[in-house]
Amino acid sequence: MRHCFLAVSLVLSLLLFGCASTKNYSMAVSSWSGARTGDLVRVWGYPDKVIRMGNGHRLYLYRSVNRGSYPQFVNPGYTTVDTSNGQTVVTTMPTTVSGGGSYDLRCKTWFEVNSSNRVVNTSFRGNNCVGTDAFVTRFGRGVKPRN
Question: How far apart are the first and last CA of the chain?
Answer without folding.
Answer: 36
